[in-house]
Each structure stands twice: as structure tokens, then as C-alpha cells.
């Protein structure tokens, strides 16, 4: 019987010897194609600067649909409620929000932001366009909360990872909302809600409790500049 | 979104993938070409490896360390061998474990280390992640992109095969 300690020592030694048989990383040149470099650059952006990447992508989608739509449609709200709106489906391992219906036009000079965040959180950065906005808050320990919204638009997708996550139906004011609670410590919780009248989907996420997320969501108010 | 947010919770994670890429891309290409013997296939394998590394970026604490180098080697080897086998399958050729991997390696250590060399690569990788790196089965499953049950089975099989090899070699 091999003891766990013997196994550990042998594995470490074996790996050390194996690595010694390989060239040092600094000694290896590379001949990757430009196409490969582009793919990796995108992956790096998505991984190293996810909030920026996600927002850029989502806002670009919204903007594109807005441009292609060529104008704003007005419809009877009852009909809209019956046939249009947000649907949620599982795509791979993501709860995916998809909007079906006419694209909304952004309300001129109106933006939304939370008026409450948990103690110690300060605004770190924000990024906005006419069709959406994201605000990142951070506390002294580097913990972050992100608040985002985007205009209802076909072609816009919001994906929430479902792995090790439980979902609770809740309310943000009068709007129904989905609260995604991560089961693993150190993973962010998320709340998603939509406001059909204003034509926006909102979401906020961070390493804070579900109650805090609901409180942040309920504090969101519009500002007119 | 959860995955994306998870990766930004720790500010130290920012820029890490870029650092890893700049530091290890040539090393990864060397490993992949050694197995696949083809530049385009090697690019595909390195890309797959980077996708897996990006998913597990929070597990990497020090980009410039032997632990990280070992992890990158394991993942690149895994993705290269997977690609090699899928190409071979397509050509309807018979497969054997570690086929195509022509970089000879003598561990040069004691009997137990030599027996580790004889393990099929997939099982050896799981064994190394568990015992040399101290990862849990859950972490190994995420790092290799396989299910929890498959990861647990790989580690158990590796241990059982190792025991058997050691008996055959008269080490135990």
C-alpha cells in the first residue's frame, strides 16, 4: 500500500524531473499566426477586463440593433405584454435572457443608478452610452459590486452562469426579479430585473448577500441631466 | 456573467492571463508541436488550453512559478493529446494512450517515480494535480474541464494502477 505522503513526494519529484526535461519558457520562441493572436487578445480582454468587455459587447449589440431597427415603434402596451418581453432559457450552462419585441429608444438624458450601496463601497468607475451604463463599486478590501442596465432590444443577450447557483424569484419594487445565489464561497451573487415600461433590463452582482443586492436594486433611481 | 464577475473579484487577477500568455506562449507551442507535429493543430491546442486556463485563472496565484509552469504544461499536453486523438479517430486509426507523444522522458528517480511514468497520461495528470499540487477533486474537474465523477475516477484509477505497477516491479 502506497501512503498518501509517499505518493505526494513521488508526484512532486516526478513533476520536477519532467519540467527539468522541458525547455525554460524564456528559451521558447513562438510563431503564432495573426489570427491566433487576435483570438487570444479577445480572450485576454474578456478575462482580464471582464466588466469592460461585457458592457462593450452588450452595448454594442444594443446599439447595432438600434441602428438596424431604423426607428422606434410604438405599440399597444397590452399587446406588447402578451407577445413581447424577456424570456429566460438555458443555453449551455447559462440562464440566458433574451428580448423579443420592438427596440426601445433611450430616454433622452435619463440615466439610472443606485442611491444605496452597502457600507464601505465607493464608486470606482463607470461607463455609459445612450443605451446602457455600468457602475463598479469597490470597498476597502477590494470587493466589488457592479450595477448595469441596457435598453430592451432584440439581439441583446444576458447570460448568468448556472453552475453551483440557486435561483429565487423575488421583487424589486413592483417588478419581479431573479436572484442568483452562488453556492460556493467567493463567488458573486446576481440579481436581474426588467422594467417593461421604461424598456430596460437591469442587473447587479457582487460578493454581497442577496438582501443587499435587493436593497441596491430597490434604491435605483433615475437622474435627468 | 457570474463567471466573468468571479474573475474580477480579486484585483490581482487582472492582467494575469496576459502575463501568462506572454510568459508561456512559446513553451505551450513547443509542447503542442512536440505532440501534434503541425503548426495549425498546435495553435488550436494552445487556444483550447488558454480557454481552460482563463476559466481557472483565479486558481493561479503566481504566474512565474514552477507550480504554474507545471499546470500550464499539464493543460497544454492534455489539450494537445485530445486533439491528436480526435484527429486520429477521424482517420479511423487505432489509438493507444500517449500515442504520438514522442518526447522521451526518463524520470530517473526511485521505483515509485518510474511507475508514475508508466501511467496513462490522463491518469498521471490527475494524479499530479491531486498530489503534487494539492487540488481537490472539484478543482481538478474544473481544471481539466471534466465532470466531478470523471475526475474522481481518474485519480482512483491512477492510484490503483500505480499500486499494481509497484507490485509487479517488486517495489511494494
Question: Can you describe this structure?
Answer:
By secondary structure, chain A is of the alpha+beta class. Chain A has five helices and twelve strands. In chain A, the strands form three sheets. Chain A has a seven-stranded antiparallel beta sheet with strand order 4-5-6-11-10-9-8, sandwiched between helices. A three-stranded antiparallel beta sheet of chain A has the order 1-2-7. In chain A, helix 2 packs across helix 3 (50-69). The longest helix of chain A has 20 residues, at 50-69. Mean pLDDT of chain A is 78; it is low at 55-83. With 172 residues, chain B is mostly helical. Helices cover 70% and strands 0% of the residues of chain B. In chain B, helix 2 packs antiparallel against helix 3 (39-55), helix 3 (39-55) crosses helix 4 (66-90) and helix 7 packs across helix 8. The radius of gyration of chain B is 17 Å and the shape is globular. Classes of the chains: A alpha+beta (225), B mainly alpha (172). At the A-B interface, helix 1, helix 2, helix 3, strand 7 and strand 11 of A face helix 1, helix 2, helix 3, helix 4 and helix 5 of B.
Question: Keywords for this structure?
Answer:
heterodimer, A: 225 residues, alpha+beta, 7-stranded antiparallel β-sheet, 3-stranded antiparallel β-sheet, 5 helices, B: 172 residues, mainly alpha, globular, disordered N terminus
Radius of gyration of CA atoms of chain B, rounded to a whole number: 17 Å
Q: Tell me the helix content of chain B.
A: 55-70%
**Distance between the first and last residues' Cα of chain A:** 74 Å
Compressed to H and E, one letter per element, the order of chain A equals HHHHEEEEEEEEEEEHE
Report the biggest beta sheet of chain A as strand number plus sense, adding barrel if it closes. 7 strands, antiparallel
**Secondary-structure element sequence of chain B?**
HHHHHHHH
Structural class of chain A: alpha+beta
What form of chain B results from the Cα inertia axes? globular
Strand order of the largest sheet of chain A: 4-5-6-11-10-9-8
